[in-house]
From TrEMBL:
SMART domains: Lactamase_B (SM00849)
Keywords: Hydrolase
PANTHER family xrefs: UPF0173 METAL-DEPENDENT HYDROLASE MJ1163, UPF0173 METAL-DEPENDENT HYDROLASE MJ1163-RELATED
UniProt signal peptide: none
Pfam families associated with the record: Lactamase_B_2 (PF12706)
InterPro entries cross-referenced by the UniProt entry: Metallo-B-lactamas, RibonucZ/Hydroxyglut_hydro, UPF0173, UPF0173_UPF0282_UlaG_hydrolase
Name of the molecule in the record: UPF0173 metal-dependent hydrolase PAF17_03310
Family in the record: Belongs to the UPF0173 family.
Naturally occurring in which organism (per UniProt): Paracoccus onchidii
HAMAP family: UPF0173
Domain Metallo-beta-lactamase: 7-196
One function term, GO molecular function aspect: hydrolase activity
Lineage of producing organism: Bacteria, Pseudomonadati, Pseudomonadota, Alphaproteobacteria, Rhodobacterales
Amino acid sequence: MKLTWLGHSGFRLEIENAVILIDPWLSGNPVFPEHQRGDAIRGATHILLTHGHGDHSGDTLSIAKELGIPVAGIYDLVNSWSNHQGIEGIGFNKGGTIDLGGAQVTMVNASHSSSLDGADGPIYAGHESGFMIAGEGHTIYVSGDTDIMADMEWMGEYHQPDIGILCAGGHFTMDMKRAAYAAKKYFDFKTVIPCHYKTFPLLEQSADALRAGLPGVQIIEPEVMKAIEL
């Protein structure tokens, strides 16, 4: 299983028979090298979207159309895109599980917001979400954009993820200390990978506080376009 950071909250996950692009914001992403776009999307089989904000959904439609691959995510947004943008969509909702190339993907709750930019203001884009992705003997919790939630208690107990991909940049989401608190209180991760940080000066630039708060847990600070073997 390979995980490659695309910067911000974007990842390329190679798991089972799938190559899943999670929240692929490439164009205009200040930490993503544009000349590596081809490498980032090559062979992708699915796109998995946590919510509608542009720093997550930015390249979703263009990649889906270019590669002819389906977009999986919250029903309201994905169904609308299927009807009006001509893409293949796999719309589902919280508590639902879908099969993406052998990987079992369950949508879970997140605490944030979700919208698209419109000419007259924000446009409703369905609810924000996270995912539990099970495959190859692991369960990965992709938090999406969120703060600490009481829901994390049952999510950790029920799904028992061993890998956490956690938003941790602060200001818009949990910061490193809050992410460490959530991971320690509600989960039993063996590995934690922070995201939604370093992109802008407004966000946290280091995972030191996350590492300090989770002794004994492997903290991997990802490097853009450097594959991590899991």
